[in-house]
Amino acid sequence: MVFFFGGVLFYSREVNVENLGYLLRYINIQGSSKSIKSEFQIELDETSSICYYKNNIAVLRKNRLDIYDMNGRKNFNSKLVYAIPVLKASDKYIVAYDLGMNKMEIFNSFSKLYEYKGDRPVYFAEVTDRGNIVYVTTEKKYQSAVYVMNDGFRMIYKCLYDKDWVMAADIDDKAETLAVAGYHVRDGEYLSRVILYDTNSEEPKSKIEIVGEIPYRVKLNGNGVFAVFENSFRFYDLKGGEISKYNFTSRKIQKIALTSNLASVVLNEKTLGTDDRILVFDRNGNLLFNQVIDAEIMDIKFSADGRFLYYLTRTGLYKISVVQGTFEPVKGAYDETTNDIVYANEKNIYLAGLVKINILDVD
Fold it and tell me: Which residues pair with 157 in a beta bridge?
């Protein structure tokens, strides 16, 4: 940091907007990882998107992005005009986009680093811990387009689709492997495709086709790819071979949480009623936990170390031990409007309601 500002001071005649922005990509303010408060006020609207970023809480509303430290101090804000704000974050960047509109911006903890200049809408985006970004849009004469940018925001790979509506995509941390999930209608039925690419080759390395259901999400890990469809969870190796499969048997998906090591899907167990089923899978697609909960589950989140899956209901917050397969309630008071688990680490659990962040200590 001292070197950077010293350089700006002594070589200010050589610093312009372009190279200053380049330097800012490598500077981040990282707050304390431990909260001294049990709650702090935030401003939300009905469409707010919220996430954890480098010991900060980022809140994207229709008119601005706010970044708070873990004790509620606002460190950064940026004015925006979004209709349906969506926020994604990794260890490197925050990605904000307006779902279905041609607006996407990338931030670190104290500055805007990139603004999307395209005239096509953005439908989906993800960012890796190294700062590689994949996003889904359209292209003239094509139904869908998927672009991959490196951490310097340079486009390094793209895929174009004549017929497929692309629902989701994922890129590995090094931007070497890309997974794309889309579908189209063939002979009156949905035909879903999960396509895997090496980004050093134009041709896909494998194509997986599923008839009769729509894909929802994909997530790569070192062993293969998680794929969540309308009626099933599947795990494939990186050559496209199916390793495991779990059929939902007409149960409706309520929530999905995917990491590079674990996956969880919440299913509504009854057509009428609030019972939900929680499924947890390991990085090889093996089923670790399968339990019906007598409650409607509002949100789920894996802890940062992957030891626990937290789930929130109207009656309380609970945690599942991924290793032991047990679950228990989490002690602590929080706002009755709480409906979102923002983040959980070995010290704290961060919950969001309509007007505040509640911070619970981990037992």
Answer: 148
Residue 143, judged by CB atoms within 10 A of its CB (0-12, 13-18, 19+), counts as: middle
pLDDT at 240 over 80: yes
Q: Which residue has the tokens 């189209």?
A: 184
Picking from 299, 291, 292, the residue whose alpha carbon sits closest to that of residue 353 is: 299
Instruction: Give the span between the Cα atoms of 304 and 259, in whole angstroms.
Output: 10
Angle at Cα 297 formed by Cα 293 and Cα 298, nearest 5°? 170
Q: Enter the tokens of residue 224.
A: 């293969």
Distance CA 72, CA 337 (A): 18
Given a cut of 80, whether residue 8 has pLDDT beyond it is no
CB 301 within 8 A of CB 337: no
* pTM for this model (two decimals): 0.88
Concatenating the DSSP letter of every residue in 106-160 gives: EE-SS-EEEE---SSPB-EEEE-TT--EEEEEEETTEEEEEEEE-TTS-EEEEEE
Residue 4's pLDDT band, with cuts at 50, 70 and 90, is very low
pLDDT, position 3: 35
What is the mean pLDDT of the segment spanning 101-122?
Answer: 96
Residue ranges of domains in the chain, CATH in brackets: 249-363 (2.130.10.10)
